[in-house]
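User: Please predict the structure of the protein below. I'd like the answer in structure-token form so I can feed it into my own downstream comparison script.

Assistant: Understood. Taking the following sequence of 192 residues as input:
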Amino acid sequence: MMIDASQTRRVGARRERVASSYTARLVSAALGVAACSLLSGCGRPEDDGVKSNTVATPLPPYPAWSASMIGKPLAEVVKGKANCIGVFDTVTATHTGANPGVEVEGWAWDAAAKHGVQHVLIVDLNDRIIGAADGGRPRADVPPAFPTITSPLVGWHGVVGQTTGTALAVGLGATGGECSLSSSKKLDGGVY
């Protein structure tokens, strides 16, 4: 099979886009972590990211809205960008039963819609969807740290169907686009 120069350029351009997307996510995560460090209260600074409690029960089910998305590449499911901020705070429980996985939580604000992000996807470092979370939970610690956030209903809680690896949280904005939430997490505890 012969590969011509145009095919080589297309493959190179695709690799560049993937690398650029990954770099942008890392920069976004770093900026969010820095902001949270400066403004106490938004990332629950008393947490070290390892709040997990191990339970010998199956993982709760994925939110119904996300079931068809699990296992797919993020780019196949979500198109465009959203204007939101937030944090992937912690792994709250590790399930070791018949259906192992972890429960996770954080917070996210949709700046365009001016309310908490309602849906969050959890992706691995290859942008494959491995979990999902529902938003709208109370987080009274967030608005005092970010005066533009006008509601405490910015918390999210969800599930990831694996217990190891590193994951990123991606908020789904009201406009249908996605936004990276700061802080990647090792699913077996800690900040990556």
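That's the full token string. Strands lie at 50-55, 84-95, 101-110, 115-116, 119-124, 129-137, 155-160, 166-172, 178-186.
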